[in-house]
Amino acid sequence: GEDVEQSLFLSVREGDSSVINCTYTDSSSTYLYWYKQEPGAGLQLLTYIFSNMDMKQDQRLTVLLNKKDKHLSLRIADTQTGDSAIYFCAEGLDRDDKIIFGKGTRLHILP
Amino acid sequence: DTGVSQDPRHKITKRGQNVTFRCDPISEHNRLYWYRQTLGQGPEFLTYFQNEAQLEKSRLLSDRFSAERPKGSFSTLEIQRTEQGDSAMYLCASSRGLAEFYEQYFGPGTRLTVT
Fold it and tell me: Of A34, A38, A85, A110, which one has the fewest beta carbons inside 10 Å?
């Protein structure tokens, strides 16, 4: 079946690293995504990783994929107040085009 | 590249009324998707189009819902005889076909409130 799970809340001090974790169930997932949603705004595609990759880095963002454990993480280095948002983990399958989203992790930045 | 746009941004309607939403995808994106997001949840897939062809519909899309993309550009999502359970954010996304279909870019959404 298709299911994506992630913790609902994370609090991090400004300047520290944030690590948001996610697990998915469909072993045939081909693409794993991180989307960001700020209050009142749509979803912003932050980054994605193909299932044949272990890691992807893009400026302050690092995505790690453990395909064996079906575990995906997003690390945000030097977390800033502008990073405060809901982060959605999602999986996409080759066999169809829909993206399956988790419920989102609300990242709260402490001063 | 102006991004995906949706209209209206907010819609309040009485139960039983029909509503129609519009989505304009990024130009030259031939795939268009509709998702629904309720409070505290992630978006859920409703349907998608490749050009004007509707290729997949979720079981969430009851027969009160209909989506069209007549000329392969903008799309409309109509809900007939709205119910309070239809209250949600309706999100549209688009992507290039073929090699880059997996990069789905979302619009700001239409928030529907059914009273």
Answer: A110
